């Protein structure tokens, strides 16, 4: 049954894209309003290498950027170059294959212990473009190139997991988020604006609400 599911996934929209590309001049059917300018970012799991039995939730994050400007449209996609992605790229194969950073039994030795994939969401807040997933700090992305700039810890204001589904207060502009992990209790709920992070007294585990 699992083999059938995996086969169907490979043949469907869940199948990974095996390359990075730039399409600076997309074909437009009709006409785009010249006043409509900006970039739509998408993020999702897209494994760099196949790993036996790996859940597709664990695929490496791939960013997609659709840019509109002066009636023209362009597209760019890039893998988020996390430490895991880079280690597997250098090894030429998958090294991790399960939740919690489980390494594959036949994986060669590696100094990489960070299994973060930054593959669930992407948001723009406080002047930063952030790729998110539940188990690690936000990954800051350069908007134009989609290059990875590193983890964002808000001036060492946070450490550890950061939810992939933060909410922005429509009145104050503050971002409300929390972090949790399987090894301990909810780490807390926070509000952040720019580089300022403050803890809230009451912590609620709210996923995507």
Describe the structure.
The protein is mainly β. The protein folds into two domains: 2-152, no CATH class; 153-209, no CATH class. Helix content is 9%, strand content 32%. It has helices at 2-11, 83-91; strands at residues 21-23, 38-45, 61-69, 72-79, 96-98, 102-103, 121-125, 128-132, 139-141, 148-151, 167-168, 175-179, 188-193, 196-199. The strands form four sheets. Strands 1-4-3-2 form a four-stranded antiparallel β-sheet, with no helix packed on it. A four-stranded antiparallel β-sheet has the order 7-8-9-10, with no helix packed on it. It is globular, with a radius of gyration of 19 Å.
Q: How many β-strand runs?
A: 14
Residue share in helices?
Answer: under 10%
CA radius of gyration is 19 Å
Shape: globular
Number of helices: 2
Low-pLDDT stretches:
1-8
Structural class: mainly beta
Mean pLDDT: 83
Q: Calculate the terminal CA-CA distance, rounded to whole Å.
A: 33 Å
The main sheet orders its strands as 1-4-3-2
* H/E topology pattern: HEEEEHEEEEEEEEEE
% residues in beta strands: 25-35%
Number of domains: 2
Largest sheet features: 4 strands, antiparallel
What is the structure about, briefly put?
By secondary structure, this protein is mainly β. It has two helices and 14 strands, in the order H-E-E-E-E-H-E-E-E-E-E-E-E-E-E-E.
List keywords for this structure.
209 residues, mainly beta, 2 domains, 4-stranded antiparallel β-sheet, 2 helices, 14 strands, 9% helix, globular
